């Protein structure tokens, strides 16, 4: 999908690898604001990003149905993933043997 900006990556094609588990990102789709929260991000940063997204909603004109969507790493909704080129839903499953991979169904 086009017309979406990951703050700090304006004008670039969005890739899943741009998201770091230690960070928090705001994806502005000009309708909704997605706040992606990495599993190892700091609590203070998470709170600040959610507050910033709420403030952006009030400062920038948006449709009435626009909303801030909190997105947790590894629990991304399909709508969020659609803004990224080639999103990969393969996750590693750790076990006692060699590394295994499990593909998540859509």
Task: Provide an overview of this structure.
By secondary structure, the protein is an alpha+beta fold. The chain has a single domain, classed as Severin (3-Layer(aba) Sandwich). The protein is 20% helix and 24% strand. It contains two helices and six strands, in the order E-E-E-H-E-H-E-E. It has helices at residues 43-59, 78-81; strands at residues 5-6, 24-28, 33-37, 68-72, 90-93, 100-103. Strands 1-2-3-4 form a four-stranded mixed sheet, covered by helices on one side. Strands 5-6 form a two-stranded antiparallel ribbon. The longest helix has 17 residues, at 43-59.
Topology, pairings included?
Elements: E1 5-6, E2 24-28, E3 33-37, H1 43-59, E4 68-72, H2 78-81, E5 90-93, E6 100-103
Parallel strand pairs: 3-4
Antiparallel strand pairs: 1-2, 2-3, 5-6
